[in-house]
Amino acid sequence: MILNTLVVNTSAGVELSYIDSGAPAQPSYITIFAIHGMIFTKEIFQRVIDLAPSKGVRFVALNRRPFPGSTLLSVEELIITETGGTDDSQREALVEARGHEIAIFIDIFIQKFKLPSISSGGGVAFLGWSIGATFAPMAISSVDSLPQDVLSRLSDYMRSLILYEPAPTALGLPTLKQNWTFLVDNTVPENLRLAAFVQWCTSYFDHTDIVGRDLDKLSWVLASPSRAPTFFNGVPLEIQRYGEDAATDLPFLFFFSKQILGAYRKAFLDSEVFPNMRRSFVCGDKTCAFGIAGLWAVQDDSKKLRGAGAKEFHHKIIKGANHFVHWDDPEKALDAFLDMA
Question: Do 125 and 162 meet the contact criterion of CB atoms below 8 Å apart?
Fold first, then answer.
């Protein structure tokens, strides 16, 4: 495993930290770039990274700003993130900046490590997990405002965009009336909500029916007694963040929902953006209800926009998997990612 950083904005001194499985033995291979979700840092993908070389794939997980090793947000950026700023122009500029940083990271990594392109049997699969699926579309949707050489290079490499269990709200879609998490439960002391959410969202859930697409047949609150939550499966405390870095995610979802929705629709549903890039959605059948509801919401949104040229997408449901299958069963997770890549 390689731990390092890449500078993605020289003038502002912005860098993103990452961990890398390294190149597998064969000359041509797919590289998967993964963005973590709320609270858990890039190391939540460590077990997948350890497995990647044996599967003939390169796996790179990066930390978003302001998570450890990546550059903190400036005072101005932090204020806009936590308050929504003063107008849409400020919000749009900040979303574009976050997208550019990630897109440039991938472009620099491609050049630095001479990654094999799609034409040589390689290319890049871009995976956003949970709230990471908020940020992955921002990178794709913002590429048309990057220099032409960057856009041209990414066009030669970007083979797939994979949304891995985002809630509808993580894509700017409406909050469902059935939605419940500890994060929005006002009966739980505010200082305990993140910690309670972590143990709950790492659980397994017995949904009555995930075929009929009935939101009321999903288990929104009660976890299954059949299997212990991932939280108790050796997840190191040091990769869990409960401070200011993790706390920036919720206000960002709330204040930037319009911009998040626009980025997701442009990246995932617009047939003119990387027209040959595959779009996919992955979720488990034992995951939190919000992950399955996210899939259904995107299916409905795609159907609604199909007449406007919305790009069709693929999906995969992983049997027996929860929101942390990449930790509990990394081989099952990596196989699913590769199927969608």
Answer: yes
Mean pLDDT for the chain overall: 95
Helices (H), the chain: 46-51, 75-83, 88-112, 132-141, 148-157, 193-201, 244-247, 249-255, 257-264, 289-305, 325-328, 330-340
Q: d(Cα 91, Cα 84) in Å, to the nearest integer?
A: 7
Asked if residues 313 and 300 have their Cβ atoms less than 8 Å apart, the reply is no
Specify if 214 maps to a domain.
Answer: no
- Nearest CA among 70, 126, 69 for reference residue 98: 70
Q: What are phi and psi of 149, to 5 degrees?
A: -65, -35
What is the tens place of the pLDDT at every residue in 110-134? Answer: 999 999 999 999 999 999 999 999 9
In degrees and rounded to multiples of 5, residue 281 shows phi and psi of: -130, 130
The radius of gyration of the chain's CA atoms, rounded to the nearest angstrom, is 19
Partner residues linked to 128 by β-bridges: 35, 163
One-letter amino acid at 246 equals A
Concatenate the DSSP letters of all residues of 214-237 into one string: -GGGS-SSPPPSSS--GGGS---G
* Structural domain includes residue 285: yes
**Predicted TM-score (pTM) of this structure:** 0.96
Domain count, the chain: 1
191-196 — which CB contacts under 8 Å span 24+ positions? 194/39, 194/242, 194/246, 194/247, 195/242
Strands 2-9 and 14-20: antiparallel
Contact 252, 263 (CB under 8 A): no
Helix (H) or strand (E) holding 116: none
Distance of CA 292 to the CA centre of its chain: 15
Strand, helix or coil for residue 206: coil
Q: Residue 215: inside a domain, yes or no?
A: no
CATH of the domain at 114: 3.40.50.1820
- Residue 262 — very low, low, confident or very high, per pLDDT cuts 50/70/90? very high
Instruction: Tell me the residue range of the domain where 137 lies.
Output: 2-175+238-340
